[in-house]
């Protein structure tokens, strides 16, 4: 819901940094993989109850995710880079609830499973729309240009997801209800994307 206005503010800053990094020979794929590795380090940190460390890993991952796109825009985006970026993003999103499930299985496992289930819904509807839009060779009226693909927005996007991740790292006891509520909002997003995709592609 907030991705587009947030990107309008952040992209000019990231693009300036990205041009500098690209000029120094930094590759977008290297940033993607480094950020992904740091993001995955949040899982053992969460499992061990080191929530501040996990939050740091999550934020570094998101900064790297912004910078890899900026470097790609400066150096010239590639299909391989776009594929790698999106695949790593979705794996990272699922890794965070996994970490909370490992931290306290008795309390967190079921809400974490529900949240991952909801993430599958948002991710699959996101990617299915992008695949059909690409095959049609253009952006349908409801689609947005973003990352390396055309996609449908929704109630829960990257900005909202990261905000929830920050909240649950700061207040870990809130994870169960946060997972249930945000997972429910993700399912609403999935339903609206499916409905819009059916309308646009009929």
From TrEMBL:
Organism of this sequence: Tistrella mobilis
A Pfam family annotated for this UniProt entry: CDP-OH_P_transf
Keywords: Membrane, Transferase, Transmembrane, Transmembrane helix
Coiled-coil region list: none
Protein name: CDP-alcohol phosphatidyltransferase
Lineage: superkingdom: Bacteria
Entry's family note: Belongs to the CDP-alcohol phosphatidyltransferase class-I family.
TM stretches of this protein: 33-61, 82-103, 109-130
GO biological-process terms attached to the record: phospholipid biosynthetic process
GO function term, MF aspect, one: phosphotransferase activity, for other substituted phosphate groups
GO cellular component, as recorded: membrane
């Amino acid at each position: 819901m907030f991705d587009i206005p947030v990107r309008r503010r952040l992209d000019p800053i990231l693009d300036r940094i990205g041009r500098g990094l690209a000029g120094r020979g930094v590759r977008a794929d290297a940033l993607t993989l480094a950020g992904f590795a740091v993001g995955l380090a949040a899982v053992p940190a969460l499992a061990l109850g080191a929530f501040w460390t996990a939050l740091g890993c999550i934020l570094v991952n998101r900064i790297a995710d912004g910078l890899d796109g900026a470097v790609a825009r400066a150096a010239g985006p590639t299909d391989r880079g776009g594929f790698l970026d999106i695949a790593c993003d979705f794996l990272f999103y699922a890794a965070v609830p996994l970490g909370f499930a490992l931290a306290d299985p008795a309390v967190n496992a079921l809400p974490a499973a529900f949240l991952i289930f909801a993430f599958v819904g948002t991710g699959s509807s996101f990617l299915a729309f992008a695949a059909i839009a690409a095959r049609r060779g253009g952006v349908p009226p409801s689609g947005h240009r973003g990352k390396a693909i055309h996609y449908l927005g929704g109630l829960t996007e990257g900005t909202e997801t990261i905000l929830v991740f920050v909240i649950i790292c700061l207040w870990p006891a809130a994870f169960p209800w946060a997972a249930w509520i945000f997972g429910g909002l993700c399912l609403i997003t999935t339903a609206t994307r499916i409905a819009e995709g059916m309308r646009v592609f009929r």
